[in-house]
Amino acid sequence: MSENNNHHDEESFSELESEEITKATESENAKLSKESTLKKDFDSLDHSVNNNEPKVSLFDKMRNHFSAKKTKKQTKKNLEKQTKKTSALNKLKNWWPLSKVSGRIFLIYICVIIAGMILLAIPGVVIKEGIKWDFLTSLFTTSSAFSDTGIDTVNPSADYSFWGQLIILFLIEMGGVGILTFKVVLYLALNKRISVSDAQLAQSERGSSDLYSAVGMIRDGFVWLTSVQILAMAILFFAFYFTDPAQTSDYVLNGKKENLEAISSYHSFPKALWFAVFHSTSAINNAGFDIVSPNSLQPYNTSGNVSYLIQITFLVEWVVGGLGYPTYHDLKKKIKAKRKGEFVPFSLFTKLNFIVYGTLFIAGPLAVFGIEFADRDGSLIFNNYTATTNEVGVVDPTSIKMTGEKPVGEAIMNIIFNTTSTRNAGFSTININDFNAGSKTVMGILMFIGSAPSSTAGGIRTTTLAVIILAINAIVHGRSKTTAFKKTIPDKTVKRAFGVFFLSALIVAIAIIICYADSHKVLSISYNGDAAIVELFMLVTSAYGTVGLNPFTASQTFEFGVLTKLVIIVMMFIGQFGISNTLLVFNKNTSAEEQYGYLEEEVVIG
């Protein structure tokens, strides 16, 4: 033990001695270095004197020397600080879950919805008792307005003041045209330079094949939509001013005609003007909101009070609003080229969009007409009727009695208006539940498809359906490439189209199941349980397609469970934001991951 201790002491002494020798050596080296530096300074001084250079004192030389060393240390310290700061920013960037472009748009949309939710809950903005400071109701209304949907849990015509309706109008305009589009248009008007970052965001929000054409496309689309909106506003002013809305419908419910609770703008200049501004904005943006009555435009489609001018103006506006910004840009280029005697072909986007939109515009009403006409004697579309309703205002099917046929022209116009409205608009001129289950299923499918990408509508979009059909056609004919109009559609786009379709179908199915489970008690009272599935399908696809047609009344929707309302809000948001953009919100992967791959192996399918 003692030997070990002695050995340890010897080692310690040896280490100490070694350290002292090292320190002495370092001190000696430092002295030699300093002497060498001083010698160099003296030599430099002698050299400067010999060469008649300005004389520099030894003190100045030493001061400059130590000042340079201090500056070097400070520079090193600043560099280390900057490196740490950059490292911290990189860590934050890596931790932040949202993508650069879609993530920023997502955050902007969330901020707008939160602001709208707070404003639409304030007393004075809200008139109806019971929904003041009701943030779930205001969140639902804000989401519906900003997503340009139109599904309500309240009656905007009576439950909100002018200021509440004005807030809803701003939300509709911002959601339809686009927040970033407004920014780009404002910069263009002020002749300010648009940054690449803003152009990228606007490109993602409105949709464009390349960054170069994004700003021009936005400008053309905004000018086109605004022009149509102002023209329609002028027409609607005179239509609302000179047309008196009906206060009761043609249907007899519970022994008396149904009360439509219409707000009249007849011979009232301020009301007619406000109605024109609000409804023109709502129609061009495919919002589905109205301030006429809780029964949409039914007061202007009743015997003695029919206004086809209002109906046709609305129809034209929502068709224009559903075509998409790239289409307006193409139309402008086509018109300019024609004036110059040149030929400019439409883009593949515009061709596919026109074909699908036009086909569905014709096929939809024809399908509904065929389904209703097949049961003409029992169809509520072709006949007037009397009935009784249950405690929540739903018609009892066993109590319906036909009182006479409607004019065929009136029935056809009702089918055309309300079926084409399912594409993206959300306005109705009759009770949607007058359509039978087969017709409502067709209407739900149309709402699921929606209108063009980068338009004011939702759904999977027309071009997605077109690409899927073209891809299936290519598979059937044994072709490896998907082509259209002598153009090849990239495989990446084809995969994305199938992904959008199947993911959208899955989301809709899950939403229906959740809503049914959460609000089963309300649905049992309204539609005897399982009979509500068709109505739920229509409601969920209406939310996803940002349409706004609702087979349930506002009071019924208000009674739905909290989870059901939240699911509908999410569906409206995804429908407006787009399933592709929603997926890209959390996608931070770069193309570097695609520089390598794995071996292929066939899998038996089908």
TrEMBL record:
Region (Disordered): 1-35
GO molecular function: monoatomic cation transmembrane transporter activity
Any GO BP annotation: metal ion transport
Keywords recorded for this protein, A-Z: Cell membrane, Ion transport, Membrane, Transmembrane, Transmembrane helix, Transport
InterPro entries: Cat_transpt
Membrane topology: Multi-pass membrane protein
A Pfam family annotated for this UniProt entry: TrkH
Cellular localization per UniProt: Cell membrane
Positions of transmembrane segments: 106-127, 162-190, 222-242, 308-328, 348-371, 458-476, 497-519, 531-550, 562-579
GO cellular component terms attached to this protein's record: plasma membrane
Residue ranges, compositional bias (Basic and acidic residues): 1-11, 20-35
Name of the protein described by the UniProt record: Sodium transporter
